[in-house]
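Technical annex B. To support the medicinal chemistry partners, we prepared a structural model of the target in complex with magnesium ion, based solely on the information shown next.
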Amino acid sequence: MDGKKLEHSSDVDPARGAAARDAARPPREEVVRFGISAAPGIVIARAFVIDTDEDLSVGKTRVPQDMVDAEVAKFKSALDATRGELLQIKTSLADSMGEDHARIFDAHLLILDDVMVIEDTEALVRTEGYNAAWALKEVISKVVASLSNIGDEYLKERSADIIDVKRRVLAKLLGVKMDRVLNPSEPAILVAHELSPSETAQVDRRVVLGYATDRGGRTSHTAILARSQGVAAVVGLEDAARLIETGDTLILDGNCGTLIINPLDATVKKYKIEIEKWKEFEAQLLTLTGYPAETLDHHKVDLVANIDLPDEVRSALDYGAEGIGLFRTEYFFIAHEQLPTEEEQYKVYRAVVDRMKDKPVTIRVLDIGGDKIARYLHRSAELNPFMGWRGIRFLLTRKDIFKTQLRAIYRASGHGRVRLMFPLIVSVDEVLKAKEICEEVKADLIRARYKIDPDLKIGIMVETPSAVALAGALAKEVDFFSIGTNDLIQYTMAVDRGNTKISYLYQHLHPSIIRFLKMTVDAAKKNNIPTAICGEMCADPLAAVVLLGLGIDEFSCSPNMMPEVKKIVRSVTYDECKTIVKKILQYSTTEKIEAHVESFLKERIPDLARFKEGKQHA
Ligand code: PEP
Ligand code: MG
């Protein structure tokens, strides 16, 4: 059996009876599945399957009329008990991982207090006489179905939170203990159709060695948490939870996005060698922490970190970041139940700036919209959110929010080296309008005698084809460019960045992308401003060679990807990277470009995870 029967959680120990089960079962074939590499690391362990949908079986029964009040009271006390449980988890998570991660539970608490869910459930009990557990299940199923019909990725993620809350309340109503379901007593890899952020946040890292999920993308909360926890993860596997049984042996390769189910002895042997090599390689990478990101012929680039939550500054510094190249402020907004005030924001920005001391901190103003939605800001869904009310468009129509954030950022700028960045720019007009608002804010703060940096550097994300086409004109208006390839590729290739079906089109080294990057860097150089890159592309080893050769000045990526990028920079010469770029600019297919860069890098650093069998070029 697997983790579906929560009431017998001792039975779900993956080590339990593994030998007996293996003997009883016909030998299973080795199956390889490719997903999205969400957090690095390679693990061989038993599977522990948790299925979040077919969990607690709830029967439909009728409550006698004279018991209805008692049934409603039972429902309300289940809600109270769940609230207490969530607050407890939130507090312990705040202790272990910081306040920002703990805020993930604010969404759960909001769901728990949702008047419609409570009233509709109570109505089903009172008017139809159904048992509360069944009534709640019905109400929640309808909410989840209506969210999934909208087809919005963010709302789908919220469905995971809603289902998680439902499970907790049902467990209380049915008197079922859920405590051990996520944490097997022996080390194992958690397998789930979907793992909610709250589940991910609660796992015990001593026994959960990896995550394999059918859903999710690199930017989902679960992936973000997995990276912060240092737990290997592969997401977007589509049907892994259906294929795998608790106790199956798995090889999870978070470096390559590969999952091998019931591997043959020869495969296990091969991966054991891979694990040793990976450990050695990681240890060797970490020895580079104190060294500069400098090529063999002494061309230096700035290696800085992307952070999504303020707490991640710690790992940025641990991995030797020379600054913060992208602080995505939207996660902090999303984690709040309502708009954070100027003071709340100031405290957060100031804390990051203080911890980075004299190192630069690039704060991107709110890039809300697309797949990053705060309930209190986006009340109605858009048909095409990535093309919609997002980034600077949002801010220029919600000047109140924009100004409050700018005030907080400018105030933090008085205490360190802050840089300000605008997202999703498509026209010079937008930059001029945004800068005008900055001037107003600055003047107000100076008048009020706040300590600010009067020369605060202002830059833009170059992440739309329009910004590339206008790079020459835009460069005249700003102090720096930061290329956001996550979006630039999506908009250039017309490929939704989170859609697994068409992910084969999401190519970092597509000839049109290389040309766009060159146009951007050339325009910046002509206007004497630096160019950074903060898209995921920068942590792709082949791309790193090309970005170097293009003359990008600053590389910004997730903290734990920085050592590998540094290794690449320190293993090549600037001259040979420039020659490579010259050559690949003559090619018109991704295959030819990749083959050319790969043959160079493979010879230089054969140990890279990129060169292992089965690597998915996500
Ligand atoms: C990008 O688009 O490359 C980027 C870094 O921004 P985000 O991933 O937040 O859209
Ligand atoms: Mg972007």
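Notes passed to the chemistry partners:
The pocket of magnesium ion (ligand 2) is lined by residues 461, 463, 484, 486-487 (CB under 6 Å).
The CA atoms of residues 123 and 425 lie 49 Å apart.
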